[in-house]
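Subgroup meeting minutes
Present: P.N., E.W., G.H.
Scribe: E.W.

1. P.N. recapped why we're keeping a running log of single-chain structure predictions: easier to compare across weeks, and new members can see raw inputs and outputs side by side.
2. G.H. added today's entry (133 aa).
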Amino acid sequence: MKKLLPTLTAAALAISTFSLSSCETPVGAGLAYGAGTGAIIGGLTGSGQNAAIGAAAGAVAGGLIGAMVAENQNSYYNTGYSEPWGSYPVATSTGRRGFVISPYSPYYEIDVRGVPHGALVRDPSCNRLFIRP
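Output recorded in log:
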């Protein structure tokens, strides 16, 4: 238990620190997951210093992976469509930032955080496209 406490403390600190950097984005989520994983792995070797080093290394790796995911998503949203925008319905805003109501039945609330305004979004319940307002 004595060796586990520094690990858990460092992991909690790393996750809370990096979670403040907008985990709505792939980069922010990569930072948080990488830092937490690195802190746990580093802390298993027995010291809080190793947990901090592991958290830093994990945050860097997670941030890089998140940046690659974000770049891939942006290129998809900007170049992946061949049909005109006017042929798709527009979703309805929920009032909650980053969430919309699908224009298709059964009208599920869909998380569109990280999707640019005006981009096409696929409703996973019916596999149909709509425009994010």
